[in-house]
Amino acid sequence: MEHLSDVIWILGILAELVVVLLLVVRGLWHSLRIFTAYCVWDLASNAMVLPLAKFSGSSYREVYLAVVVIDAVFVFAVLTELIWSVLRPIHKFLHRRAYIFIALFLALAGVLLWPLTGVGGVARTFAYVIHVEQVSSLLRILFFVGLAACSNLLSLSWKSRELQVATGWGFYSLVSFGAMLVHTHDLNVSQYGILNEIVVASFLASLLYWVYSFAQKEAERREFTPQMQDFLLAVAGVAREQRLALAQAALERRQPRG
After folding, report:
1. Cα–Cα nearest to 113, from 134, 130, 97, 96
2. In this structure, how many other beta carbons lie within 10 angstroms of the beta carbon of residue 80?
3. Disulfide engineering: 140 pairs with which of 21, 95, 169, 188, CB 3.0-4.6 Å?
């Protein structure tokens, strides 16, 4: 089993290298800068973590915690970038810093998901790692489900880069989240190893899907329907009005009375 894990790991490294090359050579990084940076980071961390686990168990635990936190920050940033990219047809109507409100929305979603995740009976450090990993996976799963469900309304197709990224992430996150839930039950060494191989294989499948998708020409993006454009602008307008109301209230509190 260990030999098979090593083979899958090496294939994953090669596939991720191809993904990075496609992002750069085909110029996809221009519209997916943060995602490209994430792929480079993930490639480097994957190439480093497994050898470290084989030769230094104590150092691996510390490095793995740092990798999980950095990975979660990248996931948060990539999701913000993808949502901003999805809204490309109405960028001219939005405030140039509207992505800040997208980030705040994702942060709120993460806060709401935090109490719903985690497991008991583990050390505090690993409980924190599990929390972060599960919240990160759930955000990716929910983003994929929402984007796929609203793809027609958002004028997206399966040849749209945003949906392709979300699909690869969604599949891998669903498998890894399921594996984390199974990990809470008593498993023997063999079962634990098989479960980890399934997770690694799912990530390899996502990478191969990205290789195939990014090698294809992207479909031309359509404009939003008038109804969808009005709805999105109305949502943006409500957010802007709330921001102005809060600013006005803060200004009034600062003014001296009497």
Report:
1. 134
2. 20
3. 169
Number of domains in the chain: 2
Are 149 and 24 within one domain? yes
Q: Nearest CA to 139 among 99, 105, 104, 106? A: 106
- Here the tokens at position 91 are 């960028």
| pLDDT tens per residue across all 258 residues of the chain | 456 777 888 898 999 999 999 999 999 999 899 999 999 999 998 887 766 666 555 566 777 788 888 999 999 999 999 999 988 888 777 777 788 888 999 999 999 998 888 665 566 667 778 888 889 999 999 999 999 998 888 888 888 999 999 999 999 999 988 887 776 666 666 777 788 888 889 999 999 999 999 999 887 777 776 767 776 777 666 555 544 444 455 555 555 544
Task: Please report, for the domain that includes residue 104, its CATH number.
Answer: 1.20.1070
Nearest CA to 207 out of 2, 72, 17, 5 is that of 17
Q: Which residue has the tokens 């997916």?
A: 32
Question: Which pTM was predicted?
Answer: 0.83
User: Which structural domain range is residue 256 located in?
Assistant: 225-258
Q: Specify whether 147 is located in the same domain as 91.
A: yes
Residue with tokens 């740092």: 66
* CA–CA distance, 137 with 140 (Å, rounded to integer): 5
